[in-house]
Specification:
The chain is an alpha/beta fold and about 120 residues long. The chain is built from 4 helices and 5 strands; from the N terminus they run βαβαβαββα.
Length: about 120
């Protein structure tokens, strides 16, 4: 039996984090929410994430610093990231940033982007 794809949602707004977590969980993904940039890279590594949804404006460490942390760790450097932010002009494009979604986002667009990206990833 295939394991559920694991997604880590890094979002400081609790309502938005809960919404994304709920929507992705309803689609059959195993979802973990993280509220700040400080614990983001560790959560991605601990959870063996298949995909990360990453806000850029985060307390502790911003999304660009999280991207650097992910790149520096051999276990997370290839984990795909979808940046979800109102501040996409500040995004530092790195190889693992596969897609960008502007806030406010359309729920269907978000779910479609996640599904497409998860299909691209090979089984772990």
């Amino acid at each position: 039996m295939d394991r559920k794809k694991k997604i880590v949602v890094v979002e400081d707004d609790p309502e938005l984090r809960d919404l994304e977590t709920f929507l992705l969980g309803a689609e059959g993904y195993d979802v973990v929410g993280v509220a700040d940039g400080l614990g983001a890279a560790a959560a991605v590594k601990r959870e063996h994430a298949d995909l990360v949804l990453l806000d850029l404006m985060l307390p502790g460490k911003d999304g660009n610093a999280v991207l650097c942390d992910l790149l520096e760790d051999p276990e997370t450097r290839e984990t795909p990231v979808i940046a979800v932010s109102a501040f996409l002009g500040q995004l530092r494009r790195t190889p693992q940033v596969r897609r960008v979604i502007a806030k406010p986002f359309d729920v269907t667009d978000l779910l479609d982007a996640v599904a497409r990206e998860v299909e691209r990833t090979s089984p772990r």
